[in-house]
Amino acid sequence: MDFEKLIAYQKAFDNAMMIFEISKTFPKEETYSLTDQIRRSSRSVAANMSEAYRKRRYPKHFISKLTDSDAENSETAVWLNFAIKCGYIPKQDYDNAYQNAVEIGKLINYMINNPDKFGSSKP
Predict the structure, then answer these.
(1) How far from 71 is each of 24, 41, 48, 64, 68, CA to CA, in Å?
(2) Which fold has domain 3-118?
(3) How confident is the model at residue 119 (pLDDT cuts 50, 70, 90)?
């Protein structure tokens, strides 16, 4: 199985792309702060997951990279909270992206708690 076939990866990639599109409407003064931060953290969710998958034969490394992915996912949720509170995104866009982040977090945690199902075994 390739990491691109993981449901968690697919959802994380899609959420990052949706956030990229949403963030195009952020004010210019947010370019080097909120816009940059939310794009980086949302992309890192999928990137860390792909790295974790390549390290799956080493359970501790696999789980460590997945926790990095989970942390980036949580960071993305915080930036979404700032974006909605600042009035930069419509509620529907916020709800979609935030709910995606919640679902992605559950999938990542499933992987963390069941590394043996991904070609690894618990340490």
Answers:
(1) 24, 9, 10, 11, 5
(2) de novo design (two linked rop proteins) (1.20.1440)
(3) confident
